[in-house]
Amino acid sequence: MPQQKTLFDKIWDAHVVKSSEGHPDALYIDRHFIHEVTSPQAFDGLRKRGVKVFNPARTTATADHNVPTKDQHLPIKEALSRHQVETLRKNCAEFGVELYDLGHPYQGIVHIIGPELGLTLPGMTIVCGDSHTSTHGAFGNIAFGIGTSEVEQVLATQCVLQYRPKTMKIEVNGTLSKGVLAKDIILYIISKLSASGATGYFVEYAGDAIRNLSMEARMTICNMSIEMGARGGLIAPDETTFNYIKGRKFAPQGETFDRLVEQWRQLKSDDNAAYDLVLTFDAADIAPMITYGTNPGMGIKVTDRIPTVNELKDLSEQTSFSKSLEYMGLEPGSAILGKAVDYVFIGSCTNARIEDLRLVANMVQGKKKADNVEVWVVPGSKQVENQAREEGLDKIFEAAGFQLRQPGCSACLGMNEDKIPAGKYCISTSNRNFEGRQGPKSRTFLASPLSAAAAAITGKVTDVRSLV
Amino acid sequence: MSKEKFITLKSTAVPLSIENIDTDQIIPARFLKATTREGFGENLFRDWRYNSDDTPKDFILNNGTYTGKILVAGKNFGCGSSREHAAWSIYDYGFRVVISSFFADIFKNNALNNALLPVQVSDEFLKKIFAAIEKNPATPITVDLSQQKVVLEDGSSESFDINAYKKTCLTNGYDDIDYLLSLRDEIRHFELVH
């Protein structure tokens, strides 16, 4: 019997340019995405070394982290943000890199545009100077975030130097309950593993509960792999994957596509492949989830009480736990259900695809937001925004009192002006609830798009199952 | 491009006994707008150091008792965003070593790529370091990269792991791109046959 390999190992091995004792592997990168925040210093490095971009066709750029979500046709008001986007423009022109700039029909959050343009394909290696690059793994590829020095490596040589991580398989079997989304699955898994539980690993998600998810939902799962410390997460490609890719702008077409699909069908872990760790969860145990603390591992079922210090698994975390609850203004042992919220943010590379917007629109149709909340819907890309308008979702949002903005990372990290004010609570479909993440002293509850929509209607943390 | 070489460092240390310190705390997103690598130290731990009106808070970096080139922090240091600005800001502030009992992957790589040495010690030894600094803020800690050892003033020590390749880079001031550029012919060949 030939050596049994995981899907991760198969893709990794196929991309090693050089492996030598004592050295990390030189790994060839098929697709490189860049954006305005983590690339300028890398281009500067190329200039200092007098090096060109090795293979410009394999890099795609967009402006997303730092862009306004209103009046994108006007020059960016804030001088530093404007300078950063202009620097990206200049660098892409000088080094011959394709840029989907503000106003371009393909502009959007880097991890949303890659898949929707058919640039993200099975079997690839994909990197970007952004930790949520793990999103692309939903298509059965190795995708991970890198630092700026590594962005420079890829620009200069189309390779990165990496140590092979350990592999972990997470199986989710069974049927999801009504009102439970992919976001709840991943928040549940992270709450079980903690914010560091998968550090050093690359995760493969499997099991029928994962298999039955749409591509959008699979991307939500892989997206948050980094929130438990994993460098990335992947899901073996199947008919759902191939149907999603078929006909997309830059995806292979016609006979080439058909031939590739035959190859992609082989992209799966061997039956007896060995993982360093295997974890199994039952989909029936998963309920709508919400975070109460300041890291994504601090999540509970929306109907559960916030733990007390004594209930912590690791007593060394007491200080951090208390600091976290103090920051959030929440009492240990109290209920989170019914807690009033001030803002609702529906957006980010985790949950700003068309399917997310449809789910939200479907729930709020004919309803109005509560008076005490402000609701921002920030589509993940220009294409998502246009599609939402074509389907009339904009009318539903408008009637509900939601603001439909223009695409960008927005209040997920508050680099642009979309910040949650100090002390205010925001229920957010994004991926991080760190202190100040959505603006200085802002307080974040991470949840699914349905839970966020429900809170928008009631003005408080709500069990979405009471509304669907 | 050559970087500062790292061999041995003997310094006092700044203790930050908080766990899961994410890179948004190390350098908040709104300070990532610069297009160069310098100057980020000014905003290191910005929201823990300063109030919104820029007056200093009661925070360890504002407490003159603790100084030095070594930052000692709780486990899972550097989790979250991949921003290399986190490593740049720690280095720019003047630190050359971060000691913790656990590092997030991307931060560890970023630090190593910027001549900032991440030193992972056991939970017990980390506790010992915190206790030693609490007892005497002027206590020197020695980080010996060639011996891969952290030594405290009382002579107790613990060894730490570092990959041989990264160790060579740090002690000689090399970086990964120098190495990868030397492989360009092999990379071209790989592109042709794959």
UniProtKB/TrEMBL annotation, chain A:
The note describing how and how many cofactors are bound reads: Binds 1 [4Fe-4S] cluster per subunit.
Q: Which InterPro entries match?
A: 3-IsopropMal_deHydase_lsu (IPR004430), Acnase/IPM_dHydase_lsu_aba_1/3 (IPR015931), Acoase/IPM_deHydtase_lsu_aba (IPR001030), Aconitase_4Fe-4S_BS (IPR018136), Aconitase_4Fe-4S_dom (IPR036008), IPM_dehydratase_rel_enz (IPR050067), IPMI_cat (IPR033941)
Question: Taking every annotated instance into account, which residue ranges of this chain make up the domain Aconitase/3-isopropylmalate dehydratase large subunit alpha/beta/alpha?
Answer: 9-459
Question: What PROSITE patterns does this protein map onto?
Answer: ACONITASE_1 (PS00450), ACONITASE_2 (PS01244)
Query: What residues bind [4Fe-4S] cluster, as annotated?
Result: C349, C409, C412
The subunit structure is:
Heterodimer of LeuC and LeuD.
Q: Which GO terms describe its molecular function?
A: 3-isopropylmalate dehydratase activity
Listed A to Z, the keywords are: 4Fe-4S, Amino-acid biosynthesis, Branched-chain amino acid biosynthesis, Iron, Iron-sulfur, Leucine biosynthesis, Lyase, Metal-binding
Q: In which pathway does it act?
A: Amino-acid biosynthesis; L-leucine biosynthesis; L-leucine from 3-methyl-2-oxobutanoate: step 2/4
Species this protein is from: Chryseolinea lacunae
Similarity comment = Belongs to the aconitase/IPM isomerase family. LeuC type 1 subfamily.
Give the protein's recorded name: 3-isopropylmalate dehydratase large subunit
TrEMBL record, chain B:
Q: What does this protein do?
A: Catalyzes the isomerization between 2-isopropylmalate and 3-isopropylmalate, via the formation of 2-isopropylmaleate.
Q: What HAMAP family would the database entry show? A: LeuD_type1
Q: In which pathway does it act?
A: Amino-acid biosynthesis; L-leucine biosynthesis; L-leucine from 3-methyl-2-oxobutanoate: step 2/4
User: What is this protein called in UniProt?
Assistant: 3-isopropylmalate dehydratase small subunit
| The encoding gene | leuD
Q: What is its EC number?
A: 4.2.1.33
PANTHER family for the chain = 3-ISOPROPYLMALATE DEHYDRATASE SMALL SUBUNIT, 3-ISOPROPYLMALATE DEHYDRATASE SMALL SUBUNIT 2-RELATED-RELATED
Instruction: Tell me which UniProt keywords the record has, alphabetically.
Output: Amino-acid biosynthesis, Branched-chain amino acid biosynthesis, Leucine biosynthesis, Lyase
- The species is Chryseolinea lacunae
